[in-house]
Amino acid sequence: MVVARWNRRSPRLFPREARWLLGTAAAVYLLILGGPLLGWDKVGTTGWGITWNPLSAYEELRQRTLASEGAYLALGPSAEETVYYGARELSPEELEQARREVDPGDAAYYRYPTTDGRIVWIDAYGHDVDLDKRAELEAVPPPPVRTEPSAGLIVEEKIVNALLFVPIGILAFAAFSSWWARLTTGPGLSLAIETVQWAMAAGRTADTGDLLVNTVGSAIGVAMTAFASLCLGFFHREGARHHSPVIAGEDSLPV
Predict the structure, then answer these.
(1) How far is 113 from 199, CA to CA, in rounded Å?
(2) Rounded-to-integer distance, Cα 155 and Cα 69, Å
(3) Tens digit of pLDDT for each residue in 143-159?
(4) What's the total number of domains in the chain?
């Protein structure tokens, strides 16, 4: 709203100032987000990786949410004597997915609570454990189960990425009169950041998912400023209409 008001009050001066602010912000973003700010010695030490799948973060989140929440209890030295205890209640669909994803090399038995209040025991091949073996497993005190926090960090990271590019969209709206320039400034800056990350090969890969999230954040900034400008224009016209001087004799009635 503040940017839209300044842009309306100084339609010639403010776009130049906004372009200067936008250029400064772009340089800061490239330095902090593109380069390894505290690890320049790592430049060129890793491979040049690109994550082409824009939904890779969602898939990683789904896998961690399903598989990483829980704890293992080793009853012996091998995986055949290891029990996995899930922490989160699984829906019927998630339970079927868990059956498909069990691994004999990971654990011999898996225990999952379900959303309908049951406890399900399955073996390393996704089959239900027989009653005798289940009674034996339930007699063993379970380990303390902790939730893996890294799954939530994925969501927080993407939200922060989007929020970082909202100001870029706001400044782009004020800096340019062309909608094409306004809408492509954010994606262009994001592409430059991902390219720098890829070229430096300092342990950070270029990610099309980040490009998509940053584009959404920039578009939100443009949309917010456009909406604020429309509202200011509407209020300005309404105020001018209500406070316009009345022409003498306009309201007089003929006798």
Answers:
(1) 46
(2) 16
(3) 876 555 455 566 788 88
(4) 2
